[in-house]
Amino acid sequence: MNITGRTTLVGVFGYPVQHTLSPQMHNAAFEHLGLDWCYLPFSVAPENLEQALRALPALGIVGVNVTIPLKERALRAVDEVVPPANLVGAINTIHCRDGKLMGYNTDVEGFTRSLTERGEDPTGRTVLVLGAGGAARAAVVALAQMGAARVWVAARRLAQGARAAELARQAAPGAQGAAVVWEDAPLHSAVAAADAVVNATPIGMYPDVEAPAPIPEDWLRPEMLIYDMVYTPAVTRLLAAARERGCRTVGGLRMLVLQGAAAFTAWTGRAAPDEVMERALRQALAG
Ligand code: NAP
Prior knowledge:
The chain is 41% helix and 20% strand. By secondary structure, it is of the alpha/beta class. The protein is globular, with a radius of gyration of 19 Å. The protein binds NADP nicotinamide-adenine-dinucleotide phosphate.
């Protein structure tokens, strides 16, 4: 990479930011397309977020991703929130346009595309989402917009689950949302009635790869779709168990690539070379 006075800058704000793989993914895409662009990581403490965001137009930086723990705070700091990020209540991408900060949630698009490109159609289906944080809320909105009939949210804190489930109806008037208590009996009943389960908790994520899967494997049925948003490891215990039971499975890596691809397109106006981005991500993860 040859950074010059003409290089266009984008990046990611996180705290901590050391573990982000987004620079490898985006810089591989810029190089592939021959774009004189560079993606940089910035460690931004939450209390400095507003100041750092306001500096973007002044520095000529075209946009940034924002990651944990800045996604909710960033939504309140931008000039305009592009739907459906307002429903999710968090943004992960900012684009500086005409001096204004535009906030997007590309997790919704990443999740949606990771399903559609696999031929998965939740129309009329019942989907159980495990967890009620930012990733879960993006999944609830995406599933409702895709036509899921019922989106249930299982959460340790029922009020948080209820708020996330309520998003289903707000995203698509025909969709029903309901919260499920994170206890054996209600969780088991919900899995038994669901066509698909989406893990949007960090359970199974590196380094806790040996932790029990969020739901027991003997609850899974072969006709189910099991989606795990965790991408380290690529095959979690939940996904391995689901494959063994004959379920269709989707891992979190593709969503990570496709949310990045959506940010790339928002900034550059170009179609993202998502296969190149995925290869770079896999290489970075292997390292
Ligand atoms: P978050 O905002 O912290 O939310 C995590 C949710 O999981 C919370 O509802 C939390 O409940 C729940 N949870 C955590 N540990 C649990 C446990 N042991 N049992 C039951 N519930 C538990 O995190 P997030 O941003 O939504 O991310 C969630 C996961 O998705 C992470 O692994 C992240 O890496 C992944 N993710 C992947 C992508 C992708 O592109 N593939 C994108 C975004 C996120 P409490 O509030 O009660 O703790």
